Amino acid sequence: MIEFHNVSKRYPGFGDALSQISFKLASGELAFLTGHSGAGKSTLLKLIAVLIRPTNGQVLVNNENIGHISRRRIPYVRRNVGIIFQDHKLLFDRTVFDNVALPLVISGLSHREIGRRVRASLDKVGLLSKEKALPVTLSGGQQQRVGIARAVVNKPPILLADEPTGNLDPELSREIMDLFAQFQQVGVSVLIASHDLDLIGQMGSKVLTLNEGKMVAGGMRNALREHLR
Amino acid sequence: MISPVVYLARHMQVMLATLGQMVRSPMSNLMTIAVMGIALALPAGLHIILKNVQQVTAQWDGAAQISLFLKQTVTDKQANQLASILQQRQDIKSVTSITRIEALEEFRQNSGFGEALEALEDNPFPAVIVIYPTEQSDNLPTLQGMLASFKKHPEVELAQLDMQWLKRLYAIMDFGRRGIWVLAAMLSLSVLLVVGNTIRLAIQNRRDEIEIIKLIGGTDAFIRRPFLYTGFWYGLSGGILSWLLVTLSIWLISEPVSQLATLYNSDYSLSSLDISSSFILLGLSISLGLAGSWLAVSRHLHAVEPE
User: Fold this and answer.
1) In which residue ranges of chain B is pLDDT below 70?
2) Which residues of B touch A106 (CB under 8 A)?
3) What share of chain A is helix, strand, coil (3-state, %, to 5)?
4) Cα-only R_g, chain B
5) Closest CB from B2, B209, B211 relative to A108
6) Which one of A135, A152, B17, B99 has the fewest CB atoms closer than 10 angstroms to its CB?
7) In chain B, where the domains are located
8) Model's pTM, two decimal places?
9) Predicted pLDDT at A223
10) Are the Cβ atoms of B217 and A109 closer than 8 angstroms?
11) Parent domain of A40
């Protein structure tokens, strides 16, 4: 579902944020992306969401090389990629229901279909009773779950999460991770950028480790070593 | 793909939602609408006044007359002969001749300088033949041709076309029309900029929302849509306001105008915006609203990119 072939991203004047990255994430596979801050985690996620373009190499999302797609095509690529943000990025002047419905409104679904899918999605994250609430009345963990409901409401084949548990206590973090595992089980490719190594260890999933823009081989063990160094 | 029915329903929804947003924050929106309304009412009102003036002067169009002042040596008999010759021309409707004595009498009665004339030995007035052209020849080139031919008669001292003042009036009205166009163009531009600026501020206020919509796959058209509908509503309400302002102003001055007309023995009454002009005003206003928002959106939307 996601393939990187020798991908580099260079910011003029700042050197390589990523260099020669290659990896593959299949359908129904969940992987963690770890590394120090500044190692290139965000850059890698941004490449998949076409927020930035690679300097070299190929980024394939659903077998489409998205490195050189036209500006007009970008929204349609993003509809296949559900993104979960550390700061949730909810619209605070709209209800939970309207926030979650936004991707479906963009896709132009009928009113009934939207209602059905939003409630299914909110039910999945356990917030069905909060559909009429405004995000500001929710706790941090609940807001994060609204963000997840919005990311999955369109049933995208790919889910990206950038430090989804960054501000949550271990118990809530574990709940969020379990949610991701459930999406993985129904065939979604999930890529989670995180430095919460305790949690990553518990999950026992594939680990991609970045160090100064380069992929470090060896998975979890190296990730821990990188962390301790 | 989106079905047409759903697409239309979405448009209606955005249209009503943007109206709802405007109604919820009335003060700032009313300011914008008021500026638009007043800016458009000014040229529209002047246009109506000019149109009314044109209607009045259209009735004067057949008022052209040519006065032939005859030489002092021409006798009344010769003058009458000339008048009857002229009467036979195809381009002349009627001819009136005023003898020297009649001219003197008229002056004595009307001017109030009668006694001054007593001091003169001779009658200073020439005989005059007043020519009323037919309606077909009542236009400037023909009249000037006629004038030239009259001047060739040996009896004629001076031939004068009494249309100079009409020509001047037309020139003034032409000037007025141009002036209104220039004013309308300038005020339209300002309306465009006012709407553009209001939409630009709206885009800035909703920066986060635009970024999020872009992140979850909203197309440019989707993001543009509410702003364009906002521009549409500004245009429509500004147009309606300017229509009301013009209609109200015309109504306010129509009473004194018809009183004035009565004094001139006329039953003339001021006409306001007719249906087609009203629609043109509304259409223009809506187009300006849309164009202004389009301008702002196309300039500023690309600047809002998620990071």
Assistant:
1) 1-2, 58-63, 114, 163
2) 213, 216-219, 222
3) 40, 25, 35
4) 32
5) B2
6) B17
7) 4-60+167-300, 65-162
8) 0.74
9) 58
10) no
11) 2-228
